[in-house]
Amino acid sequence: MPNETEIPQGIRCISEHNWDIPLAHKLMVGRGTTIVPSMIWNPPIGIAADYAGGAALLLDLLGAVGKGLEDDAEFTECVARTTAHLEKQQAKHFVLETGEIVSMTDDDPVESVRRLVSTDIPDTVARAEAAIAGRNDHWLAAVRNDWQSHFASSYREVLYFSFPGN
């Protein structure tokens, strides 16, 4: 994980998403969530979490969402692309770089990330877990109805920035 003195080597990109932090990214950092120094920005606005736990949670929710979208070829392709990329890019941790998103408002970026970690991500994980267990059908239907905004991120191996020395 990133720390105050060094940026980890061997960083792999998972995905990018425009304008917000989508449901998929919140789930990917939903297990063992902690705030870490950003690898790109000065304030401590990175969010790190357990890779395997977050990936499993995301894939479980995709399975639950897919139970209502069996005939949607675009959703099926999104799930296949997401699954393949997560398997290919496996690591010990996810690190969510929040800088661009949290800097789009006048709010304090550090406080915005604290709220994400203390409230928004845990609430999202709880909703997802309940939906997976069949106890949150209303929320699951809403996610299913707007699945593109939650899951159709740009999965890539290349980041749009570089680190010093790399």
Write the layout of secondary structure elements.
Elements: E1 15-16, H1 23-28, E2 34-36, E3 46-50, H2 51-66, H3 73-88, E4 93-97, H4 99-102, H5 109-132, H6 137-145, H7 147-151, E5 154-155
Antiparallel strand pairs: 1-5, 2-3, 3-4
Helix pairs in contact: 2-3, 2-5
> How can the largest sheet be summarized?
3 strands, antiparallel
Portion in beta strands: 5-15%
Please state the CA-atom Rg, rounded to the nearest Å: 16 Å
Structural class: mainly alpha
Write down the overall geometry.
globular
Compressed to H and E, one letter per element, the order equals EHEEHHEHHHHE
Helix content: 40-55%
Distance between the termini: 17 Å
The strands making up the biggest β-sheet line up spatially as 2-3-4
Count of DSSP strands: 5
- The average pLDDT value, as a whole number, equals 87
**SS summary, helix count:** 7
Poorly predicted tracts of residues: none
Tell me about this structure:
This protein has 166 residues and is mainly alpha-helical. Helix content is 48%, strand content 10%. It contains seven helices and five strands. The chain has a three-stranded antiparallel sheet with strand order 2-3-4. Helix 2 crosses helix 5. It is globular and about 50 Å long.
Concise account of the structure shown:
This protein is mainly alpha-helical and 166 residues long. Helices cover 48% and strands 10% of the residues.
